[in-house]
Amino acid sequence: MENSDKKPKKLSFISIYFLGINAVIGSGTFLLPAKIYHEMNLMAIVVLLLTAVVVSMIALCYADLSSRFKGSGAAWLYAYHAFGRFTGYELGVFTWFLGCCTLGAEIVALLTTLKSFWPVLNNQTIYYLLAFGLIILFASINFFGRSLVKLVNNISAAAKMITLLIFIIVGAFFIHQGNFSPIIPVAATKGAGPFLQHFGAAFTPIFYLFTGFSFIPIAARQMNNPEKNIPLVLIAVMVSVTILDCLMMFVAIGLVGSKLSTYSTPLASALGNGIGKWGYSFIIVGMLISIFGVAFSASFNAPSLIASLANEQELLPAWVGKNNKHDAPWVGIIVTAILTGVFVTQSYLFLVSCTVLASFIQYVPSILAVIKFKHSNEFPNHGFKLPGKYTIPIIALIVSCYMVTNFTPVTLLVGVVVAAIGAVLYIFMDQDPAMEEMEKLHKEFLDKLRHNKIKF
Questions:
Q1: Residue 448 pLDDT
Q2: Which of 36, 47, 110, 368 is disulfide-compatible with 291, CB 3.0–4.6 A?
Q3: Rounded to the nearest 5°, which phi and psi values hold at 427?
Q4: CA 398 to chain centre
């Protein structure tokens, strides 16, 4: 007899790690080195390392928070317990918005890369048909729950790490020492103002390389021992990606030097310049796998996020959080696919800017939640505790606020519009939980009266 109560297996530590790798290493790793080098030359490696350190401080705040809660939702769940229902709801809307933006950006990057091989994609109709087809493909895979998600995710993450490792190892044999000059652009040496301008222009795209870490705790309830495993995975992913990115940048500069800033596909062109056409083709294939992996990871996390808003604290109607027989949030998958369908009609750079904005909006309340919980001793840690009390959260908060200086008025307007729409929907959807409980008790009382179960 088949056991109908058998629950789907939860994600193991290694599966969560690969999910994190997929969330972080994406199109930016393969497309942004040209922009980063253009702004800071060889010094870009130092800026990359510094950015990785400060972003890791934000990630450590998430590690601290994820050790306090085992529920799904990540940033919105932390804000809910720290600052109340409305703050948690608004942050949940922005985090879901972030997931859909990321998914849309990666699909656009994937199709833009494919245009160099398939000129037919320059036809707008065919381009959008393929874009919508990819959205449907990701949704279909996620409908079958964690088993298929885990398989696709692990293969994709392993493939992209192998691609970067081969680029680093093979490319290291073709480095020319003369390519490491100049160390810094002449324009950046004209004073503190020009230097900070170049630094900021490099900081923003480098920051984008790491933003995916915040997706790791979103599907906590679908993971084994989340309070212990998620903090460890966050740290492991940030260390792994930092090492890979620094080595990648060093080898890329060593292969082509100042030419790096002129390439639209910098890593592929750099390796192709060193060892020939097959090197270019190899990196392009790895790049496509990497972008596919981040898109797939976002397609898994975003539906889990919106479902958690309904299931964890009933911030959305219960039907939004419904799961199918494969334990997949099928309503969340559908609404995520619809919004992503709108986003793939936009440009890559616009979606990247929206992603960074949404990241900033979820980082600040999350960091403040760490400070509040440390001060109040609410929700004790399990498995990981952030050292140094307030030092790391304060540094992380300063870094997050620095991001504001790099937002354009259009990007900020998008943030205001999303917040306003979310607030309006909240007013119409929200009901006082206490009032709901009273109505429930009143209904039970009337039912008992009708069935003569209460005597006076």
A1: 57
A2: 110
A3: -60, -40
A4: 21
CA distance 252 to 443: 69
Tell me the pLDDT tens digit for each residue of 70-101: 766 677 888 888 888 888 888 888 888 888 88
- Give the bridge partners for 223, in sequence order: 11
Could you tell me which of 266, 274, 246 has the C-alpha nearest to residue 43?
A: 246
Cα 25 to its chain centre, rounded Å, is 10
Model pLDDT, residue 438: 47
In this structure, which amino acid lies at residue 449?
Answer: L
| Rounded alpha-carbon distances, angstroms, from residue 278 to 266, 299, 426 | 15, 31, 54
pLDDT at 166: 92
Q: Which of 102, 84, 78, 83 is nearest to 291 (CA)?
A: 102
pLDDT < 50 positions in the chain: 1-5, 432, 434-439, 442, 456
Evaluate whether 261 touches 185 at the Cβ level (below 8 Å): no
Which helix (H) or strand (E) covers residue 454, if one does?
A: none
Radius of gyration of the chain (CA): 23
Helix residue ranges per DSSP H, 41-123 = 44-66, 75-83, 85-114
Peptide bond before residue 380 is cis, with ω within 30 degrees of 0? no
Q: Write down the pLDDT at residue 362.
A: 84
DSSP one-letter code for 113 = H
Q: Are 214 and 74 in contact (CB under 8 A)?
A: yes
Q: Which burial class, exposed, middle or buried, applies to 19 when counting CB atoms under 10 A from its CB (0-12, 13-18, 19+)?
A: buried
Helix (H), strand (E) at residue 141: helix 124-143
pLDDT of amino acid 450: 55
- If 0-12 CB within 10 Å is exposed, 13-18 middle and 19+ buried, where does residue 144 land? middle
pLDDT given for residue 145 in this prediction:
60
Tokens of 416: 């205001």
